[in-house]
Write a structure and sequence with these properties.
Helix 2 crosses helix 3 (about 105-115) and helix 3 (about 105-115) packs across helix 4 (about 130-140). This protein is α/β, with parallel strands linked by helices and about 300 residues long. Helix content is about 35%, strand content about 25%. Pfam families: ABC_tran.
Length: about 300
């Protein structure tokens, strides 16, 4: 388990991580999300002792990373896939890591096979493609058979088969009871893998919730079908309620949930024959939540076309 408590990091007068608290629990894949400049990389570096907090603390299985005698057995990380000596082969890179923890050669062979690197294990890492480098980084993270796995953009550069492999791998690790922390800009992929979300913006916590609850609460309203739409519209009206209509007997209601709408309709004898919450994608919900904390905003596509 990873536990961050009031974690803060300042560089001079710039606060990169601001009073951040969250927990990455065993048996779950936690998606660690945020726009560029949100403080995600700095937070992950503090988790494994590469940066020191200005204030607050973060522990890995109850201790700071530096206090673990054999940290590779506690947490495996992929923060920068290319941080490998380019002149070493994949095999020798993994063996060098294994020697630091007394990990046997058979485990090196196991992670090479698991990562699909058997045919290139003797090749120099400097000649690896981006995808092959990612696979090596994941193999390194798994080398110590850790209780926690923390990966930053693990599917970057992978082909569809590789993306599917990572998805199944992370799901399998969580199902084994391990804690998995995944940082990614691919919302569609995160939605397929993650159970829980920790979303940050400008170093601050914006959301700490399940994927299901996050997308439901950001949902596109509730579709209601009734033979008495005008009467139901007046019953549901309120200061925070928006009601639109797509057909004569359909209403789209935002500001009231399905349970509340059903109860009001039943109380007043209004017949309903559809009451369906309209879910939104994780990407849409994320974009809506982080709209005001994006460090760099692109111009609309039509503006670009006009300028061209």
């Amino acid at each position: 388990m990873i536990e961050a408590r009031e974690l803060t990091k300042r560089y001079g007068d710039k606060t990169v991580v601001d009073n951040l608290s969250f927990t990455v629990k065993p048996g779950e894949v936690t998606g660690f999300l945020g726009p560029n400049g949100a403080g995600k990389s700095t937070t992950m570096r503090m988790i494994v002792g590469l940066d020191s907090p200005t204030k607050g603390s973060v522990t890995v299985n109850g201790r700071s990373y530096a206090k673990h005698a054999a940290p590779l057995h506690e947490i495996g990380t992929l923060l920068e896939a290319k941080s490998v000596h380019p002149g070493r082969s994949a095999f020798h890179h993994l063996m060098a890591l294994a020697y630091t923890h007394g990990i046997p050669r058979r485990r090196v062979d196991e992670v090479i096979e698991l990562a699909g690197l058997t045919s290139v294990a003797g090749k120099r890492v400097g000649a690896f493609s981006l995808g092959m480098g990612q696979r090596l980084g994941i193999a390194s993270a798994l080398l110590g058979d850790p209780a926690i796995v923390m990966l930053d953009e693990p599917v970057n550069g992978l082909d569809p088969e590789g993306v599917l492999w990572v998805r199944n791998l992370l799901r399998g690790l969580a199902d084994e009871g391990r804690a998995v922390m995944l940082s990614s800009h691919l919302m569609s992929e995160t939605a397929l893998i993650a159970d829980h979300l920790v979303i940050v913006g400008r170093g601050r916590l914006l959301a700490d919730t399940t994927v299901e609850d996050f997308t439901r609460e950001a949902g596109g309203g509730v579709k209601v079908s009734t033979t008495e739409p005008m009467r139901l519209r007046s019953l549901l009206a309120g200061p925070e309620v928006t009601i639109s209509s797509s057909s004569a007997e359909e209403l789209l209601v935002a500001g009231r949930d399905a349970r509340e709408i059903g109860a009001i309709a039943a109380q007043h004898g209004v017949p309903l024959y559809e009451l369906t919450p309209q879910a939104v994608s994780l990407e849409a919900a994320f974009m809506d939540l982080t709209r005001d904390v994006v460090e760099y905003q692109s111009a609309p596509a039509d503006t670009v076309r006009k300028a061209a």
